[in-house]
Amino acid sequence: MTNTYFATVARGLEEIAAKELEDLGAKEVIPDFTGVHFQGDKELLYRVNLWSRIIFRVLVPIETVDSDDSTQLYDNVQQIDWSNYLQPDQTFAVNCTGNNQNLNHTHFTALQIKQAIVDYQYQVFQERSDIDVKNPNILINAHIKDNHCIISLDSTGESLHKRGYRPAMGLAPLKETLAAALLKMANWEPNIPFLDPMCGSGILPIEAALQGLNIAPGLYHKQFSFENWQDFDQTLYEKIIQEAEQQQLTNLKAPIFGSDQDFDIIKQAKTNARNCYVNHQIEFSQIELEDVEPPTDQGIIVCNPPYGKRLGNSQELGELYKLLGDVFKQKFKGWTAYVLTGNKELSKQIGLRTSRRLPVYNGSIACTLLKYELY
């Protein structure tokens, strides 16, 4: 049976996510603002949650209702047959996005929907589900647009960017999903040596290792919300899990390196790599930036230096960017470097001509991924 799904994604990554979904077998793929519409069967739903490196979550729309105001929204949500999706012994939560003139507070809108659902349950079952905002069995998403509300089941639960391997974070971490997207934007392939000379808590090298070893990132997810659905197919899901485990590689095709000047941060990176069992695949080193040497004749560098929004002051950062450019120029002939920055003035300090500038968002910060061909 073919269903329509909506994958949520960070702003600016819609096209990359759409390509990933197509590669996973999705049909009728249509990018939208911070999301991608697509179609597929239940097996694809499970597979996307398990394998996607770039999206946050997959929503399954179940009803679109009129919602001019809170009363109309309540009445229409209560008319949905919730017994198909939620039993009284299951907990649930409602996340709401969007607004219109009369429904302009997402928390209030979510409360209206919760009340409509439990009132339905009282009528049908004479009992109701409990609310659990931290770890619900069933997660419901409501999106208000104009005078309509799209009600969806969230198949994912905790966002896919939370791989589960990273209790240890640097001071300004990248989301794992953005790190994976940057690797795609840099056209990195597992047969190309990879280096992040400012690796922080190691997210770029770790995501590269997961890709290089063909490890499905969803294997680190504790539980997906779809596992609590009434139509959950345990046999099908176990088959997909087994296939994913069998497709993993035991060794990288090309080496992956990460370095940072901070000893404690490198310890964090090693802990994170150990948590997803790739610590023996990545060579992490504590090295001052000026002492970094190319570990191979050629390869790809991707790094995310601080750009003043969270860390450091502009003068120190200007010197850091100049040093980064000097290291590239003097030592890394034959390599290609990519630098993510949210500060145009700082990027000028690198002192090298860019061959490409790719717009991307790091959270709410408008950034650019700068490409340098090092000859």
TrEMBL record:
This is RNA methylase. InterPro entries: DNA_methylase_N6_adenine_CS (IPR002052), RlmKL-like_Mtase (IPR000241), RlmKL-like_Mtase_CS (IPR053943), RlmL_1st (IPR054170), SAM-dependent_MTases_sf (IPR029063), THUMP_dom (IPR004114). The keyword Transferase applies. SMART domains: THUMP (SM00981). Residues 44-155 form the THUMP domain. Keywords: Methyltransferase, RNA-binding, Transferase. The keyword Secreted does not apply. GO terms for molecular function: RNA binding; rRNA (guanine-N2-)-methyltransferase activity; rRNA (guanine-N7-)-methyltransferase activity.
